[in-house]
Amino acid sequence: MFYPTYQSKNNQVVHIVEDQQICLCGVKHHSFYELNRKDLRSIVFKPVDNVTCEDCLDKFKDFS
Fold it and tell me: What are the start-end ranges of the H helices in 1-64?
């Protein structure tokens, strides 16, 4: 199954996106009020196997 993911720029960790502004672990990937097309392009659908954030994976397993 594929899920929306975001790769952080500073440490290259892949997070699962919860909504337009935050990931499952609480990291903000978009802090502005309006979304641009460029901002949406940073969200990529990937399988759960490619997610490297341990906090996101733990919360994802709790939901499943």
Answer: 37-41, 54-63
Q: For CA atoms 40, 42, 43, 46, give the dihedral sign.
A: positive
C-alpha distance from residue 27 to each of 14, 16, 21, 31, 49 (Å): 11, 10, 9, 10, 19
* Structure token pair of residue 59: 């919360």
Beta bridge partners of 23: 17
Q: Residue 56 CB: number of other CB atoms within 10 A?
A: 25
Q: pLDDT per residue over 12-58, tens digit each? A: 999 999 988 889 998 888 767 777 787 778 889 999 999 999 999 99
